[in-house]
Amino acid sequence: MSIIGKKIVTSYFETKQVNNIKTRIMNNIDWKNLPFGYMKTDYNVRCYYRDGKWGKIETSSSEEISIHMAATCLHYGQEAFEGLKAFRCKDGKIRIFRLEENAARLQSTCRGIMMPELPTELFREMCIQVIKMNERFLPPYGEGASLYLRPLLIGTGAQVGVKPANEYLFMIFVTPVGPYFKGGFMANPYVITRKYDRSAPLGTGVYKVGGNYAASLRAHTEACAGGQYACEFYLDAKEKKYIDEAGAANFFGIKNDTYITPESTSILPSITNKSLMQLAQDMGMKVERRPIAIEELATFEEAGACGTAAVISPIERVDDPEMGTSYNFGKEPGPWSKKLYERLRGIQLGECEDVHNWNTVID
Ligand SMILES: *Cc1c(COP(=O)(O)O)cnc(C)c1O
Q1: pLDDT in tens, 177-205
Q2: Which of 231, 308, 348, 358 most suits a substitution to test ligand 1, by most atoms within 8 Å of the C-beta?
Q3: How far apart are CA 144 and CA 266, in angstroms?
Q4: Which of 146, 208, 232 is the pocket-test mutation for ligand 1 (most atoms within 8 Å of CB)?
Q5: Could you identify the atom of ligand 1 that is nearest to the CA of residue 272?
Q6: CA–CA dist 1, 15 (Å, integer)
Q7: CA neighbor of 55 nearest in space, from 159, 163, 208, 171
Q8: Longest distance between any two alpha carbons in the chain, whole Å
Q9: Which residue among 66, 262, 284, 298 sits deepest, i.e. has the most Cβ atoms within 10 Å of its Cβ?
Q10: pLDDT digits over 307-321, tens only?
Q11: Does the structural domain 35-177 have CATH classification 3.30.470.10?
Q12: Alpha-carbon span 66 to 50, nearest angstrom
C-alpha cells in the first residue's frame, strides 16, 4: 500500500499483501481458547426481499444495520435464524456441514412465521461468499475451533397492525468459535424446569425463531444462577410428563445399544440429532424416536444434549428439584457417545469418509 498525500492507492496485489499481513496478525489469535462468542470479522453478506422478490447479494464491512422503527421484527418477532459451521480440514479444503439441511430448516421456519422462503441456491451462494471473504478468520486445522455462520432473516417492512411485513433482510455474518470443551469432552449437570415452558405443543417450538429464546431466557438464567447447572431442561408443556429438550440442544438417551430421542411437536429439529441418528444406525445401533417419559431417564446408560455448538454435550446428571429426584449418568462420557462424537467430528474435518454427502467442499 502506498500513501500519496492523503490518497491511499491499493492495487489488487497490494491488497493481497495487506491481507497476508493481517493473516499473520490474526494468527496471534489463541484459537484453542476462543470462546463461543462474537468476534468482529471483515465482511457480512446481505440480501433484501422487496416487491415480491429477492435482490442481489450485497457485501458489507459494517456490523450495523439500519431498519425502520416499525419493522415487524422489532414488534411482532418476525425473526428467524440458523447456525452452521465451516471447518478447515486436513486436506486444506474448507467444508461446510449440512448446508442444505440448514437452508431447508430456514424455509420451514419461513413458512411457520409467514416470511418469504429463501431459495437454497441463494443460501448456498451467500454461505460460500461470506466464508471466502473472511477466510483469515477460519481457524486452522487441528485447533478444535471452527468458523460459525449465523444466517438471520428479519421482517424490515413497517407495519403497525399485526400482519407479515412486505420487506425482509436476510444476512449472514461469521465469527470464529473455539472448541466447546476446553478441558476435553466433558459431562455436565442439567436441571429440569417445571416453572417455565419454552414452547407450546402447537406453537413455534419447531421453528428456529428468536421468540422461543426470549421465552427461555428467564428459565435459563435461573437454572444457571447458582453455578451448579450447565443448562435448563424442558418437559412437554401440556402434560409435564415427557422430555422435550435441553435449552438450545436436543436430548438423546442410550440403552441396550439403542439411540432414543424424543418425538415432540414442541422441539426444534436439530440437524446434529438427525446426523447422530444416521450415524447410530450406521454403527449398528437401533434408533427410536418416540415420547420419553421422565422416569425413563433412570434406565439410560448414557445421555447427551446435541447441537451445532458442541456436537454432543454428555449429560452427567439431570436433577428434578421440585420432585426431589435426580438421574445420574456419570461424569465420564459413555462409549457410544464418544464414538458418535468422534465419527461426526471426523466427517466435519474431512478425516472420515462423508458417505452421506453432508459436506459442501470449498476448494
Ligand atoms: C438450534 C437449536 C438446536 C440444535 O440444532 P442443530 O441444528 O443441531 O444446531 C436445538 N434446540 C434448539 C431450541 C435450537 O434452537
Answers
A1: 987 776 668 899 999 999 999 999 999 99
A2: 308
A3: 32
A4: 208
A5: 8
A6: 7
A7: 171
A8: 75
A9: 262
A10: 999 999 999 999 999
A11: yes
A12: 16
The answer to whether residues 333 and 187 touch, using CB atoms and an 8 Å cutoff, is yes
What atom of ligand 1 comes closest to residue 105's alpha carbon? 7
pTM of the prediction? 0.92
> Residues 6 or more apart from 153 whose CB is under 8 A from it?
79, 80, 81, 106, 110, 115, 118, 168, 169, 170
| DSSP symbols for 141-182 | TTSS-EEEEEEEEEE-SB-SSSS--S-EEEEEEEEEE--S-T
Nearest to 91 by CA among 324, 351, 311: 351
pLDDT digit string, tens, across residues 198-232 = 999 999 999 999 999 999 999 999 999 999 999 99
Residue 193 neighbours by CB distance under 10 Å: 24
Domain spans, the chain: 35-177, 188-348
CATH 3.20.10.10 is right for the domain spanning 188-348:
yes
